Structures are given as C-alpha cells and as structure tokens.
C-alpha cells in the first residue's frame, strides 16, 4: 500500500471513530436526560394532589371535626357552636396574635373567627412549632381547669384556641394556617382555591 493509500485509510478510520464517539456521546446524553426530565416533570399523582378539593359539609354535626387531605396536609373542617364561638372573646389577652396580624390566613379569614362563616372553621392541622398534628380538644377543662376548648399539640405542649390562634408562652410561634377556600354552596366548600387566587406557601 502506498503512503497515499495509507493516508486515506487513516482518514476514514478517524472519521469513523469520530462518528462513533459522537453517537455514544449522544446516547449518553439521551440516557442521562430521561431520569432528569422525569424527575423534573410533576407526576400525575403530584398534580392531582395539588388540585383543589370539594368537601361536602352538609352532614357535619355541631362540634364535629372532619379531616381531609390536600397537598399531603391534613385540613380540618370543624362546625363550631355558638357556645364555642363565645369562648373566642374570652381568651384574647392570653394569645400571641389575637388579631391575626401575621400572614397566616387569606384576607377573608383575618377576623375574630378566622373564617368566612363563623360556624365553619377550616385550618391546616399542623402545629406551627415543628409540624406535629395537634389534637382537637373542644372539652372545657380538658387540658387545664381554665381550658375553654381549642387545639393541643402533645409534642411540646403548644395550645391554640378554637380559631387556631396560638397562646402565649408555648413553643409554637404562630397561629394555625388557614388555607384558601370558598363556598360553592351552603353545603359545599372548595379547599385550595378562592376567588382571589390566594396561594398557600
Ligand atoms: S410541634 Fe407542636 S408543640 Fe412542638
């Protein structure tokens, strides 16, 4: 073989190696991309979990608590009696944020009842200290002789009143979170959305 022929073979060989390397590189990128893209794309399950949920409240009896799950969080719906609502004005001096100044609720729940309708209380059932789930304790005298009802977190002893407002001198720093919600009718609410488009962090 002449040196010219050798040069042609060598050039062909280099071209093949270059193409093969590029192809392997391309496969490598494609293979690496699949897990990344599937990780990045929200799963159908996550999307379903983030969607607002409708809750039928027609069967909820006075003092009863209903728990539903939205975005993986427990959401309470509690039907408060007039007697329960009357306790709210009696504990304000003992509360850390009685007027709900902290941004823990949508604007329509920034009131004494922390709700749209006083009768129905909707809240995220997660303690604002370290995330335990407090117990619903509407029983007067149940936690202490002066207890008028509310929520008690057994993890470190935080207490909230029946509007989810945190007491002073407990580890939890803030009132319970009120999620965005709205009434679809007198018997049905939708949790996770509202007319203002409020987002829960
Ligand atoms: S998590 Fe509720 S008091 Fe600590």
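^ structure tokens above, recovered residues below v
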């Amino acid at each position: 073989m002449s040196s010219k022929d050798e040069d042609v073979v060598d050039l062909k060989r280099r071209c093949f190696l270059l193409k093969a390397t590029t192809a392997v590189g391309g496969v490598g990128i494609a293979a690496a991309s699949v897990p990344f893209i599937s990780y990045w794309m929200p799963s159908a399950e996550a999307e379903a979990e983030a969607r607002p949920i409708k809750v039928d409240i027609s069967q909820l009896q006075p003092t009863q608590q209903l728990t539903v799950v939205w975005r993986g969080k427990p959401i309470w719906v509690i039907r408060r009696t007039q007697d329960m609502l009357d306790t709210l004005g009696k504990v304000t001096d003992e509360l850390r944020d009685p007027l709900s100044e902290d941004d823990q609720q949508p604007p329509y729940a920034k009131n004494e009842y922390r709700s749209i309708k006083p009768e129905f209380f909707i809240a995220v059932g997660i303690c604002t200290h370290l995330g335990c789930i407090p117990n619903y304790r509407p029983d007067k005298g149940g936690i202490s002789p002066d207890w008028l009802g509310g929520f008690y977190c057994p993890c470190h002893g935080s207490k909230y009143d029946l509007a989810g407002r945190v007491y002073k001198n407990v580890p939890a720093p803030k009132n319970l979170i009120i999620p965005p919600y709205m009434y679809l009718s007198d018997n049905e609410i939708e949790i996770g959305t509202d007319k203002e488009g409020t987002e829960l962090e």
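Residues 127, 129-132, 153, 155-158, 171-172 surround FE2/S2 (inorganic) cluster (CB under 6 Å).
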